């Protein structure tokens, strides 16, 4: 398989996220980069992955990326479509989802996510859309993957609001709250792949994408970055991965009148 | 017993100033035509319940009809933020609104509890999450059997539910298919309901027995409004008009542009325009 040198940081992020998914996964998919990653996985190495969108579609296989969480194509290609209460009660709360895939407006080093407000909750500087399904995705899925583009305003020392709980203040904070699932186990950015330290649960860079420096990772992150002693380079996209992603996005753009599904 | 009416009568009879209302539809089947009629009738001081407030509540809030919103995700799906709702929260324009914020799981459970006649919903939720610190309607309850602490929220019991569906039979039974969302629960949780439908058919005799149907005696009012979900979509009839959602982002970004758009496209129109609007996106 040819390795391509011409790819964007965003493409690398999506493809690295796709690689983290396996054929056996049952994945609760968020719109945006997570949706692109899950569908690239399905169209390449994980054809039997089960994708679930919170609108109630289970086992969906869209030909284009949905613009919204409830596009018709998700229902038309699904194994079954259930009501929203059933989705949250039987499927998510029932513990039937292996991976919850979330994005973040603000993220801290312990994988806590804010998509609710910037500033004070009662007098917000910016009112963001809010959590939707995320508070329970973060606690009910067996593991949580997070994707986001690195920027100091997004990756912050302290988030303004705990929309979804990651590892809290680190260590065994989840267990102390009685949460039985693993929480965030992987963070994939446009520059690097991060995993939580087994003890402290602080996200640590384990792999940097080609051409990325430690300085670049630190400059775009609001906390002091820890790098693994065994730092690797993320293998660049293969021709199949990149072609699959680009064709998916071209089909999506055509279907949605110029708007990409991310 | 379901009554067949025109939209003006159905809204005037069922929605009143100060009511708690739930317009539902999860991306799919959003009752836009009915929301526009509420705006034309200027029904005010509404408490608006909805999982995803999106464009119709952005329009109602921007026109000053809402005093309170109970919600779990305030976004224009696939596009971005709700600019009129944000303007009301951040700047009090055209009036300030109270917000009660939940997660999707809490909202879905609260509707289900309302439909089941229970006072509250119990579920495993909000673990470690910040909303329970800012929303006093989120409490906890201890399981009497296992001792597990669970989240509890009050049941939704709206005065009125408003939904859009594919079909009604002559008798008034309502068929909802595709992404069914939380509409069945919203109707059963509410005291009254208004259902707009694409078409009225003789009966449902040839349909599969497991389809989602609201029996006629659970529905208050049925109105035939072809295209009534546009720019949302109706599975089997027409597709989502994504361009209109993108366009809303531009229109809603500016107060004057918003007001002019509402005057031209809502205040000065009737529900009959919806059939015309879906011609370009018919399935």
Automatic annotation (TrEMBL), chain A:
Spans traversing the lipid bilayer: none
Protein name: Acyl CoA:acetate/3-ketoacid CoA transferase, beta subunit
PANTHER family: ACETATE COA-TRANSFERASE YDIF, CHOLESTEROL RING-CLEAVING HYDROLASE IPDB SUBUNIT
Molecular-function annotations in GO: CoA-transferase activity
Keyword Transferase: yes
Alphabetically ordered keywords of this record: Transferase
Keyword Magnesium: no
Pfam families hit by this protein: CoA_trans
Species per Swiss-Prot/TrEMBL record: Microvirga lotononidis
SMART domains registered for this protein in UniProt: CoA_trans
Automatic annotation (TrEMBL), chain B:
Claim: Transferase is one of the keywords in the record: yes
InterPro entries: CoA_trans_fam_I, NagB/RpiA_transferase-like
A GO molecular-function descriptor: CoA-transferase activity
Record-linked Gene3D superfamilies: 3.30.30.40, Glutaconate Coenzyme A-transferase
Keywords: Transferase
Keyword Transferase: yes
PANTHER family listed in its UniProt record: ACETATE COA-TRANSFERASE YDIF, CHOLESTEROL RING-CLEAVING HYDROLASE IPDB SUBUNIT
Protein name per its UniProtKB record: Acyl CoA:acetate/3-ketoacid CoA transferase, alpha subunit
């Amino acid at each position: 398989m040819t390795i391509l040198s011409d790819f964007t940081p965003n493409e690398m992020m999506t493809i690295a996220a796709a690689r983290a998914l396996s054929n056996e996964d049952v994945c609760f998919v968020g719109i945006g980069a997570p949706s692109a990653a899950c569908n690239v996985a399905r169209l390449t190495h994980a054809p039997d992955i089960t994708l679930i969108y919170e609108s109630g579609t289970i086992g969906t296989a869209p030909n284009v990326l949905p613009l919204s969480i409830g596009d018709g194509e998700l229902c038309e290609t699904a194994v079954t479509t259930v009501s929203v209460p059933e989705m949250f009660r039987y499927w998510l709360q029932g513990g039937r989802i292996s991976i919850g895939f979330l994005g973040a407006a603000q993220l801290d080093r312990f994988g806590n996510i804010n998509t609710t407000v910037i500033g004070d909750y009662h007098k917000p500087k910016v009112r963001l859309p809010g959590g939707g399904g995320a508070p329970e995705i973060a606690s009910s899925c067996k593991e949580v993957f997070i994707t986001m583009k690195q920027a100091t305003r997004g990756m912050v020392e302290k988030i303004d609001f705990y929309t979804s709980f990651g590892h809290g203040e680190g260590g065994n904070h989840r267990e102390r709250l009685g949460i039985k699932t693993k929480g965030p186990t992987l963070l994939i950015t446009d520059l690097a792949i991060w995993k939580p330290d087994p003890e402290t649960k602080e996200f640590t860079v384990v792999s940097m994408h080609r051409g990325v420096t430690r300085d670049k990772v630190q400059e775009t992150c609001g906390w002091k970055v820890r790098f693994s002693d065994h730092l690797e380079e993320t293998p660049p996209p293969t021709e199949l991965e990149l072609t699959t992603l680009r064709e998916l996005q071209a089909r999506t753009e055509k279907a949605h009148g110029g708007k990409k599904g991310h | 017993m379901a009554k067949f009416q025109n939209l003006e009568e159905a809204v005037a009879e069922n929605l009143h100033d100060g009511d708690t209302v739930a317009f539902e539809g999860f991306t799919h089947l959003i009752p836009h035509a009915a929301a526009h009629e509420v705006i034309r009738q200027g029904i005010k001081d509404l408490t608006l319940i909805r999982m995803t407030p999106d464009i119709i509540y952005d329009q109602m809030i921007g026109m000053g009809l809402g005093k309170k919103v109970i919600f779990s995700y305030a976004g224009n799906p696939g596009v971005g933020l709700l600019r009129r709702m944000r303007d009301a929260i951040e700047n009090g324009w055209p009036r300030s609104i109270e917000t009660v914020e939940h997660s999707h799981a809490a909202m879905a459970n609260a509707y289900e509890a309302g439909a089941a006649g229970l006072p509250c919903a119990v579920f495993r939720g909000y673990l470690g999450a910040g909303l329970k610190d800012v929303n006093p309607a989120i409490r906890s309850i201890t399981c009497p059997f296992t001792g597990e602490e669970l989240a509890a929220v009050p049941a939704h019991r709206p005065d009125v539910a408003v939904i859009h569906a594919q079909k009604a039979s002559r008798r008034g039974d309502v068929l909802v298919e595709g992404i069914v969302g939380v509409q069945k629960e919203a109707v059963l949780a509410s005291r009254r309901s208004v259902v707009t439908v694409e078409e009225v058919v003789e009966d449902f005799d040839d349909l599969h027995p497991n389809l989602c149907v609201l029996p006629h005696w659970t529905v208050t009012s049925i109105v035939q409004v072809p295209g009534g979900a546009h720019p949302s979509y109706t599975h089997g009839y027409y597709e989502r008009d994504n361009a209109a959602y993108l366009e809303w982002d531009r229109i809603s970004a500016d107060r004057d542009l918003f007001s002019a758009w509402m005057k031209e496209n809502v205040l000065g129109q009737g529900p009959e325009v919806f059939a015309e609007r879906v011609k370009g996106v018919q399935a």
